[in-house]
Write a structure and sequence with these properties.
- The termini are far apart.
- The chain contains two helices and eight strands.
- Helix content is 36%, strand content 39%.
- The longest helix has 48 residues.
């Protein structure tokens, strides 16, 4: 009986190690993809700053400007950076897929910033977001890692509003109740951005 219990413990320990290794491999792959996407964004910014006309910096953009009751001027900007894919040698125009998106917006004097990374199948892979309004006392950073479009890990950091460095307040594979609304919002935005990209892409005059 003791030997059976030891065998079970060994199997559980091996499973735990395997899951840990898989999680590390997932995050490593996501971070590599994220670094590539950010490098491309920097390249686009440099090309635009230097006035390059060819090759044309490639991305879609959506802008919103309006006046809102109580909070006043409101502005949103979504930049959608895509990659090309040819499905056959006969294809004249390559297919486009959304790789990375940046969203910036404000409410009154508060500024928000979000990033969305996607895999080639159009599934959300990583979300980074800053929020200055979750509890009106602290700034928050969210990092959400996904595997096959499903949440694999949530990392939340916090600091006093506008002061000091962020410290980790939560990391785990589930979403605590206090962060559920934020998670729902960011995940929902990731899908909205994808639909916006698809609408622009499908409406292009080719």
């Amino acid at each position: 009986m003791k030997q059976i219990a030891q065998t079970i413990l060994c199997i559980l320990a091996l499973c735990a190690l395997t899951q840990t290794a898989q999680a590390q491999d997932l995050k490593k792959a996501i971070r590599a993809h994220y670094a590539e996407a950010k490098a491309y964004v920097d390249q686009v910014k440099k090309m635009e700053a230097e006035g390059f006309s060819y090759p044309v910096p490639q991305y879609f953009s959506a802008h919103v400007k309006q006046n809102l009751p109580a909070t006043g001027f409101h502005q949103e900007e979504v930049l959608m950076y895509y990659q090309e894919r040819r499905d056959s040698d006969e294809q004249i125009y390559p297919s486009l897929y959304l790789d990375f998106a940046v969203k910036k917006y404000n409410f009154a004097a508060r500024e928000y910033y979000e990033e969305y990374l996607y895999d080639e199948q159009g599934r959300i892979q990583f979300i980074y977001a800053t929020s200055p309004i979750l509890d009106f006392e602290n700034d928050y950073e969210f990092r959400l890692y996904f595997s096959g479009g499903q949440l694999a890990e949530l990392l939340v950091k916090r600091r006093p509003q506008g002061k000091g460095d962020y410290t980790t307040v939560y990391t785990g594979k589930t979403v605590p109740e206090e962060y559920q609304s934020s998670y729902n919002g960011y995940y929902g935005t990731s899908q909205t951005v994808m639909r916006t990209f698809n609408a622009i892409n499908d409406g292009r005059q080719l």
